[in-house]
């Protein structure tokens, strides 16, 4: 066990998450659906509740105390996020509803302005639907085409094939940092480098990466990076789009309305500066405050310690599940994080999920909004156990015992 894991006191950490201490169907809850959404520490719940109890007011518009406080908290959250992903400037942090909205924003602004007939957008075979459909909508509108970098049987992107897709027609690469269905950690730095050599900008879908590893957007070199607050122990309805200021400055606005304008007449509207140009209407103020509290919490634990602890847990789970007869892990990349997707011969994943639920174990079953990944592996669905830093080896043991029950029932 390495030093980072040794100092990670999971039993103390679990006390910070009130929701974990309940029974489901009379059994202690084992929450293994963290890739869908993760649970919130008391500090996040308190920060949101404090906002409504003491500071609630709209931002940027009032001269009164409460509005000033709300505005300060909102802008401090932006700076916290800038530091969290090591962006060069807070103007490069745009608040959105989540990863999906962040990708749609880029597709509808950068994409519409820069993609034309015959152009191409490169994605990969392991993308979440949120990183497929916005590009299809854009491609259909513009007469452009989607090109898909294939993956091998482990669920790793074939880099040579990826590189061969990059051409003078490519307008953008959009790739997951970590796959939600398989857990693959993609070699994003290298992929960005290969695209940049040809002058192609890169968007990274960081929905599954931001909660599990240190992200440094300047070191990776990507042009856009998106993630969701609710997977990072923060509230739902808040997410982040990072974009290089030089690109964001050139992009047309996404939505029109309050705060994104500089001046309005019936003849012409001029737009606000960054980041407000992309933040039309009253934003999710409580969301930004909750997300800032989540980032404080995660920073206190340290992302390196979190990654080391989760890697150890993943290894333990992989080893245990590999020993279960008739169980096949789907996604066995050499660089992998926090996801155990599997199928059991002769049992539909929905039945697996239901039987596990009756034992208090929450997992996700289905296509995980990644139907092309399921097609690639020739399965209609998988059962997915996804880990967080508050999970334990005992919970993995409970999962394995639960699978034993499934097999008992299905003979
Ligand atoms: N991309 C990936 C890799 C995801 O895992 C998810 C959510 O599961 C999304 C995008 C969409 O995130 P959201 O629903 O928060 O917009």
Q: Please, could you describe this protein's structure?
A:
With 411 residues, this protein is α/β, with parallel strands linked by helices. 40% of the residues lie in helices and 16% in strands. It has helices at 3-6, 10-14, 42-55, 65-84, 99-114, 133-142, 159-165, 188-196, 217-220, 245-250, 285-301, 303-322, 349-357, 371-377, 393-409; strands spanning 23-24, 27-28, 30-31, 93-96, 120-124, 145-149, 170-176, 202-205, 224-228, 239-243, 261-264, 269-271, 327-329, 339-344, 361-362, 364-366, 382-386. The protein has a seven-stranded mixed β-sheet, with helices on both faces. A four-stranded antiparallel β-sheet has the order 13-14-17-16. α4 packs across α11 (285-301), α5 packs parallel to α6 and α12 runs parallel beside α15 (393-409). The mean pLDDT is 97.
């Amino acid at each position: 066990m390495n030093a980072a894991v040794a100092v990670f006191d999971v039993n103390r950490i679990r006390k910070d998450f009130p929701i974990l201490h309940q029974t489901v169907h009379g059994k202690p809850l084992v929450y293994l659906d963290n890739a869908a959404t993760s649970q919130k520490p008391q500090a996040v719940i308190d920060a949101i509740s404090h906002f409504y109890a003491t500071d609630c007011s709209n931002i940027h518009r009032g001269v009164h105390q409460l509005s000033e406080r709300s505005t300060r908290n909102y802008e401090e959250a932006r700076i916290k996020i800038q530091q969290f992903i090591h962006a060069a400037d807070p103007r490069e942090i745009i608040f959105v509803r989540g990863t999906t909205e962040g990708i749609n924003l880029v597709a509808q602004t950068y994409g519409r302005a820069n993609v034309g007939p015959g152009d191409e957008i490169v994605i990969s075979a392991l993308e979440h639907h949120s990183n497929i459909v916005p590009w299809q909508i854009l491609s259909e509108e513009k007469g452009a085409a989607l090109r898909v970098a294939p993956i091998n049987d482990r669920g790793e992107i074939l880099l040579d094939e990826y590189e061969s897709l990059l051409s003078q027609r490519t307008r953008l690469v959009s790739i997951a940092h970590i796959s939600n269905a398989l857990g693959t950690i993609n070699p994003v730095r290298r992929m960005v480098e290969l695209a940049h050599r040809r002058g192609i900008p890169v968007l990274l879908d960081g929905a599954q990466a931001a909660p599990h590893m240190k992200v440094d957007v300047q070191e990776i070199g990507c042009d856009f990076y998106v993630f969701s607050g609710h997977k990072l122990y923060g509230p739902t309805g808040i997410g982040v789009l990072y974009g290089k200021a030089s690109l964001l400055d050139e992009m047309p606005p996404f939505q029109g309305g309050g705060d994104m304008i500089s001046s309005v007449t019936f003849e012409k509207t001029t737009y606000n500066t960054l980041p407000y140009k992309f933040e039309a209407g009253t934003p999710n103020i409580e969301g930004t405050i909750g997300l800032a509290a989540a980032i404080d919490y995660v920073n206190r634990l340290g992302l390196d310690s979190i990654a080391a602890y989760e890697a150890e847990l993943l290894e333990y789970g992989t080893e245990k599940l590999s020993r279960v007869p008739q169980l096949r892990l789907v996604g066995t990349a050499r660089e992998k994080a926090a996801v155990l997707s599997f199928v059991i011969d002769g049992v539909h994943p929905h039945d697996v999920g239901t039987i596990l639920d009756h034992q208090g174990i929450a997992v996700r079953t289905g296509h995980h909004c990644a139907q092309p990944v399921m097609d690639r592996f020739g399965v209609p669905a998988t059962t997915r156990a996804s880990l967080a830093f508050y999970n334990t080896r005992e919970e993995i043991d409970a999962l394995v015992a639960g699978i034993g029950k499934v097999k008992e029932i299905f003979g």
